[in-house]
Amino acid sequence: MKCLVIEDDDDLGELWLAHLEVCGIRADVARNLHEASSKILTQDYDVVISDIDLPDGNGMELTHLLAFRQPDTPVVVVTGRSDFENGELFTLYHNIAAVFRKTENFEDICAYIEHRYARRDRRPSAAPETRSAAG
Q1: Is residue 130 part of a domain?
Q2: Is 123 helix (H, G, I), strand (E, B) or coil?
Q3: CB count, 10 Å around CB of 28?
Q4: E strands along the chain, which residues?
Q5: Domain-embedded: residue 129
Q6: At 94, which CATH number?
Q7: Is 59 helix (H, G, I), strand (E, B) or coil?
Q8: How does DSSP classify residue 127?
Q9: For the whole model, what pTM was predicted?
Q10: Which domain holds residue 95?
């Protein structure tokens, strides 16, 4: 599994990389919208973890690019903000899969990502063609 972490705090970005690696998840870090956009346009990701407040804009702007470029890639928002407590982000952006506070435990967020990825892999593929007994 490959993950893109969009986080402007260098120390927190490195912590994300370390925790994701322990969970067996390969990850890249982008420190701003420009860097994240470049990575999304040139690489495929299984999941994106994004902060909202970035130095060059709002991290939610990337959900539109991601929905166009990689429509099956879920976005996990990790934010210090508390103004989205009623689930507003889910109605604004269809590819947001979860919203966590930055105070949440890294292992819990990793477990959520692993669970969601495992569920995606277990989805049944297209039903096999069936033939009638009469024909």
Answers
A1: no
A2: coil
A3: 16
A4: 2-6, 26-30, 47-50, 53-54, 57-58, 75-79, 96-101
A5: no
A6: 3.40.50.2300
A7: coil
A8: P
A9: 0.80
A10: 2-121
